Amino acid sequence: MKDLLKLDNQLCFPLYALSREIIQRYRPHLDEIGLTYPQYLVLMVLWENDKQTVNQIGHKLLLDSGTLTPLLKRLEQKQIVLRQRSTVDERVVEISLTNMGIDLKKKAKCIPEKLIQELEITQEEIDSIRSIADKILKLK
Predict the structure, then answer these.
(1) Chain center to CA of 3
(2) CA-CA distance, 104 to 33, in Å (whole number)?
(3) Which pTM value belongs to this model?
(4) What is the pLDDT of residues 93-138, one digit of tens each?
(5) Fold of 12-111
(6) In 88-118, which positions are buried (b, 16+ CB within 10 angstroms) versus exposed (e)?
(7) What is the dihedral sign for C-alpha 60, 63, 65, 71?
(8) Burial of 57 (0-12, 13-18, 19+ CB in 10 A)
(9) Quick one: three-class SS letters along the chain?
(10) What are the boundaries of each domain within the chain?
(11) 30-84: per-residue pLDDT in tens?
(12) Going edge to edge, which strands form the sheet with 81-85?
């Protein structure tokens, strides 16, 4: 019988270590454009669809508003996003890209390709990992 408390038998540890490793690999590329990894994630959501509510962004990133709000405030201080209360419901905060935020997309465009090359993995392997992660997270 397997010792289920042995580190080598855990699913959580290699996923945790992999997550940390990938984020670490992003760091030098994101440093070049002045972003942290969580800020990059928020911008990717906004680059897909500009002007979203805090709740919409949080839903897509699996983050609560308590985690997201300070992050968005820092992006606003950097003049990358604009935070505005909805005119329909003042409890709702809408986030949209500034011109600087839109321009950052051009600078960030090469990052995914660079990362794939550095990791030395194929698109098929990426798709496989994503499929399993999506299944566990019930994203698709």
Answers:
(1) 35
(2) 7
(3) 0.90
(4) 999 999 999 999 999 999 999 999 999 999 999 999 999 999 998 8
(5) Arc Repressor Mutant, subunit A (1.10.10)
(6) eeeeebbbebeeebeebeeebeebeeeeeee
(7) negative
(8) buried
(9) CCCCCCHHHCCHHHHHHHHHHHHHHHHHHHHHCCCCHHHHHHHHHHHHCCCEEHHHHHHHHCCCHHHHHHHHHHHHHCCCEEEEECCCCCCCEEEEECHHHHHHHHHHCCHHHHHHHHHCCCHHHHHHHHHHHHHHHCCC
(10) 12-111
(11) 999 999 999 999 999 999 999 999 999 999 999 998 999 999 999 999 999 999 9
(12) 52-53, 93-97, 81-85
| Residue whose token pair is 């911008």 | 43
Q: How many whole angstroms separate alpha carbon 137 and alpha carbon 59?
A: 12
pLDDT at 59: 95
